[in-house]
Structure formats: C-alpha cells, structure tokens
From TrEMBL:
Keywords: Lyase
Enzyme class: lyase
Domain of life from the UniProt record: Bacteria
EC code(s) of this entry: 4.2.1.17
Family: Belongs to the enoyl-CoA hydratase/isomerase family.
Database matches in InterPro entries: ClpP/crotonase-like_dom_sf, Enoyl-CoA_hydra/iso
Protein name listed in UniProt: Enoyl-CoA hydratase
GO MF annotations in UniProt: enoyl-CoA hydratase activity
Length: 282
C-alpha cells in the first residue's frame, strides 16, 4: 500500500511533510493520520531538522475527514495505539478512536519541540483545520478558504476545538452556525493566519520563512514555543477543548440513536446543498 504522506528535504534544516492523497483531496483516513504522526515524530527526533513545514498535494490542502471510510478505525496502522476499545460497539469505539486519532494526535503535534509551519492552499475543510491549528505558524495562498460545516451533521465542530482562540468567539459562532468559508484575508485579519501570499509564491515564501527561523538556535526556539503554548494553556484552552470534545461525542451518540449511524447521512446532503448554493452565488 502506498504512503499517504511524503517527506522532502528542500534545504538544509527544513523538512516538508506533504499530505499525498490528491485523488481524495487529501481527505484524512486513519492511515494518513498515523503516517503523519510518524513523519512528525521522525522530524522531531532528527537533529538535522530545525523547522517542519506541513503542506498538501493537489488542488486542496485537505477536504477534512474521509467520510467514505468513516466506519474504519485503525486496521494495519503503522504505529501502536495508546487507547483501547477501538472495536467497541455503539459510540464507545468511536469515542476511543477520536480521542486518540483526532484530539490526541493534534495535541501531540502542537507540542512538537520544533517550530512548525502550516502551508495552506485551496480548500481547508473541517478536519483540515485540525491539521493546521496545531502548527505554530500558518501561511496561506490568497485563494485559500477555511470552513467547518459539520453542524450540518448535528455536531458542534471539528474535534480539535480551537475555534475561539483562532478566530474569536463571535466569528467562531458565525463560522459554525452557517458553515460558510472564511477567506484567507479574513483569517489573516482575525489572527488565524500569519501571512497571505500570492498563490504562485506560496511554496517559496513558506520555505524562506522556515529558513529564517532555522537560523535561530534550536533550544531558544523550543523554549519560546513552550512559553507561548503555556500562556494559551493558562487561558483555559485545554479544559475548553475537553468540554467541546465531550459535546462532539454527544452529537455522535445522538446520530447513532436517531439514524443508526455515527454520522447523520442527511448531513452529507445538507453540506452538498450549501456547496451548490455557494457556487450559484459566485
């Protein structure tokens, strides 16, 4: 089976980790997430790597979770898991899986001991935010959009619920209530994105930023990152995320009780209708 993640070393000191399922718009299945974790862990342990860039192949950074594989968890995973009960009936198995593969891995990536940069382009939908938000910096192409339309599935939002810290409380509510995408310029204005650049300059600008960071001493970078993360933790982000995750699992339980599925199948239709409406407007 081919890998869904590719690693590159474009210049000394910088490793680029690339989501490589372009035929699925880099939609995330369990294998991709655990291969991504393996790539991050390898870069973190490599003394020759100072900065890590996360990017994606194809027209979109990521279309979020791969709903065609929503019933699967971890068969053939390349790494051992910490959670048990993945195969449990009802919502128990889904809770265990998402606790590790979504919330748990995102927390792990946020705490990598080296600077990370998310390189965003095309569409970044729902689960894509869970890959970008743990990154230390985000650079976006001008045409990039960011959205979390999963309220249509009777859920509260992506499992790594950092919305309030990323865009502010009122914009987070609008983003979730409507499912409408956020433009790169709005994301920059709200502080979610560090830089917005022309689409054709995205690769070169991000690499140049990584090289500038890589010139700094590694230990100083590690201490600075830990200090900023600690400040956010002191604001209560981690506790708020735990509460939001519990509500997310309640949404799965509701769908299971009402529809016999973890994800409400009608939600797919609602999201497609929203997408058609946007296309008509443009």
């Amino acid at each position: 089976m081919s890998s869904s993640v590719r690693k590159e070393r474009p210049v000394a000191g910088v490793e680029r980790v690339v989501l490589s399922r372009p035929e699925r718009r880099n939609a995330q299945n369990a294998r991709m997430l655990y291969e991504l974790d393996e790539a991050f862990a390898g870069a973190a342990a490599d003394p020759d790597v100072k900065v890590i860039i996360l990017s994606g192949d194809g027209p979109d950074f990521s279309a979020g979770h791969d709903l065609s594989e929503r019933g699967s968890t971890l068969p053939g995973s390349p790494v051992a898991t910490l959670e048990g009960a993945f195969g449990a009936a009802g919502v128990e198995g889904r809770h265990a899986f998402e606790c590790e593969a979504y919330l748990g891995l995102c927390r792990r990536w946020r705490s990598l001991p080296k600077p990370t940069i998310g390189q965003a382009h095309g569409r970044c939908i729902a689960g894509a935010l869970m890959l970008l938000w743990p990154m230390d910096l985000i650079v976006a192409a001008e045409s990039t959009t960011f959205s979390d339309p999963v309220v249509a599935f009777d859920l509260n939002g992506a499992e790594y619920f950092a919305h309030t810290w990323e865009v502010g409380a009122r914009k987070a509510k609008e983003m979730l209530f409507t499912g409408e995408p956020l433009s790169a310029s709005d994301a920059h204005r709200l502080g979610m994105v560090n830089h917005v650049v022309a689409d054709a300059e995205l690769d070169s600008f991000t690499l140049d930023l990584a090289q500038r960071i890589a010139r700094m001493p590694a230990y100083g970078l590690r201490l600075a990152k830990a200090s900023v993360n600690g400040s956010v933790d002191s604001q209560g982000q981690d506790a708020a995320m735990e509460r939001a995750f519990a509500l997310h699992i309640a949404g799965h339980a509701n769908n299971l009780a009402q529809h016999g599925e973890i994800i409400d199948p009608a939600g797919i239709g609602r999201i497609r209708e929203l997408s058609r409406h946007r296309q008509e407007q443009t």
